[in-house]
Model the fold of this input.
Amino acid sequence: MGRRIINRRPGKGSALFWGALPFLAVLVLYVVFSALRLAENPGDKLLPAFSTIADTVHRLAFTADARSGNVLLWTDTAASLTRLGLGLLLSTALGLILGIGTGLIPYVRAGLSPFIAVLSLIPPMAILPILFIVFGLDELSKVVLIVIGIAPFLVRDLALRVEAIPAELVIKAQTLGAGTWQIITRLVLPTVWPKLLDAVRLSLGPAWLFLISAEAIAAQDGLGYRIFLVRRYLAMDVILPYVTWITLLAFCMDWALRAMNRRLCPWLARGAS
Amino acid sequence: MSRVSIDNLWMEYGDQVVLERICLDIPSGEFCAMVGPSGCGKTTLLRLLLSMEQPTRGGIRIDGQPLAAEPRPDRGVVFQRYSAYPHLTVQENVVLGLEFARAPLLGKLWGAKKRQALDEVRHVIDAVGLDQARDKYPAELSGGMQQRLSIAQALVRKPRILLMDEPFGALDPGTKAQMHDLVRALWRAERMTVFMVTHDIKEGFDLSTRVLAFDKVRHDPDAPQAYGATITLNLPLDDKPERAEILNQAQAPPGSERGAAEGLGH
Done:
């Protein structure tokens, strides 16, 4: 008994139970309050019953929309994931190229680092109107918003990671005859690659934020578009499953990036930091 | 051949003088131990020999030629820490030097060329006793094995000068003794000129053929940074048999050293 609480650890099953508890609590709270509200007013839209939600999900995910002939959930998902994927891909490429450039090459650092520092302080949402004016209302402006939103962070994070590579390792590579390009391919890239994937994982949240904001303001499809479209009808039976779906997608992307890290960087599992 | 001459070298950071009036003439093949209290510029001189920094005054020459302004394969290095690449296995770490030389574009060899390069470095890995650990990552090795790896890695490009910054400072006494035997054998086989910074004076005298002691000789109590350290003792250990050999070689006509300079790889 005598042990301090900081030294008492849950076992495997117990950890699972404690992990599931908050989810169950939210679920129970929802069911209770939904039932209470529906008992008072069967037409209540704020906390729809699970049966209503199931009907809506069936309509959205498995039947074609009467007006457009598309199955809405999948069209929306495809549109959003395309924008998000393009935005993340471009940002990652920029982060890699500019991050390694500013982190490794003094002249690039001198030229770009103050500019990127200032750029990263511009609130991306504040220049969204400019993006709409310059890039039009379709796909490009949404992708650009994501890039502007997360690329500066990725560039700065990567630059710091490159600068944190011990000078000894860079010097040693030079004494082994490596040129700048070889140092990048054999030392810098493998070292920062896992950190880049981690940085992208951390950027997933902001990337979704910018995507949904852009879709809410101007789009014809997309997960964010749908949520903001049905908001005016108070259609919580659509919004709640959509939000759950977005969360699930984000979780899967995070998990996939982590798995990729483990697969591509076997030395991390074998004691290297 | 790699005779190292240093002529009245000064190193200053702002108004702080770190090294002053350093003059040295080291015959090719000598093993120099650099000893002295902390902060006396031993590592600074090593960094200058490596071209990590440029001296404020004076210069370093190898066989009469001024030192290149950046690190080159003619000078190998073994640091105390961060010695090997954590993302490469032992044999990949060692073969890296050959890959840099043979694959200018990506610095990586594949297929038959890679296998051939791995074959070529096999005896170096064996020589430092890492043959059982070929496929391990540095993080899986003990401190002594990591330093062996670092030495093997540095030797692949056959440097004329080997620079070591407290290479055995973090090792236990038993491992240290093993490493001394290893380094002595490799130094004789490769005929390199070696500079080793050490805090362990006994280690310095055991291994080297010349001891260089660093200390400050001038003090200004009002401005402690005004004077730097210099070499207070430049002691050739003439009782060492290796030293006689080194001097003989230094005097021999140029053609006759070919065989001796071939070293470990042949």
